[in-house]
Amino acid sequence: MQNINISQQVDEFIYYLDDIQGRKLYNSIKKDSLDEINKDYEMKGAYLALQFLIIPYLSTTEISGLIKADLFLGLQIDDIDISERLKKKLLFMHLADRDNFKNEIKTALLSNKEQITKEVKNNDNKPLKTANDWLLDYVSQSDKSKSDIMLKAEYFYQKSYFTKLPEDEKLVLRKLFALYNFLNTSSMTPEGFEDDLLLMNEQGQLITTNKGKVVVLYDTKSKGTAKGRPKARTVGLPKTEEEKEIDELKMEEKKYPAGGLEQRAIEEEVEKKKKIEDIKAMAGKFKPNSLEYKAMMEEIEKINKQ
Questions:
Q1: Where in the chain are the domains?
Q2: Which pTM value belongs to this model?
Q3: 243: how many CB neighbours lie within 10 A of its CB?
Q4: pLDDT of 54-68, one tens digit each?
Q5: Distance set, CA 288 to CA 10, 17, 280, 296, 302 (Å)
Q6: 3-state class (DSSP) for residue 80
Q7: 198 beta partners
Q8: SS3 string of 81-137?
Q9: Which of 31, 11, 33, 36 is CA-nearest to residue 21?
Q10: pLDDT tens per residue, range 199-222
């Protein structure tokens, strides 16, 4: 089996997030070529990258081992969102089993000793360089009285030992913290529930959920204005998810003083949402399987990871 062929196949499967064919290749390698893979640095890297792609089909033990020993490689793959891969795995599981799975993977994550940045020292003069070092430092900053936006703003913009890192290392850490937050959120809460809901409520509204919030998609009984209620929106397209999130961020922004750190963080989030909205509008002009569409979806993924 040629190493160039394996690498090219893995790159292609990851590009298209084709975990079905990726799983077939993984099983083939395990059966016939594992010894050969372990002797070649490039092939071993491709094999590990393939495992991150097919996380939905790996056992809990295999995923734990991958996260504990080889997470750094997974965090560097542009087209792989490890949280999304884990979410797909969770969708195959019974709801009652999901938190146990998350806790097991979180334990593996916190046990990771790979060096993922150059060594720096935090405000307590403690050296930080491994995934474990950074996670413990990040978790120690947590304050339940503060919003996620505030916590990120304080850590990403006020901690000099973070702000002075190279941009590629900052990106890896942001992805690391996002993965921890995903695993640390119970599937039994609205924020952590992995399944999309689509149902009709007693008022005749077709609703879904988004990040723990109810979103009305269609109101079957809305044919005019009921007395004492605001008139339903009848002209134009419904707001996109980005528009709704921008509205929420702007409401949040009003709580903080002008020109402060909090507003700076919120304004950056608003700009990201606006960029995503514009790109999605352009992407709608192309077929989903076209190269143009794929390129725009990649750009959205990059923005989301910033």
A1: 3-110, 115-183, 194-223, 237-306
A2: 0.68
A3: 14
A4: 999 999 999 999 999
A5: 22, 14, 11, 10, 18
A6: coil
A7: 208
A8: CHHHHHHHHHHCCCHHHHHHHHHHHHHHHHCCCCEEEEEEECCCCCEEEEHHHHHHH
A9: 11
A10: 555 666 666 655 555 566 666 555
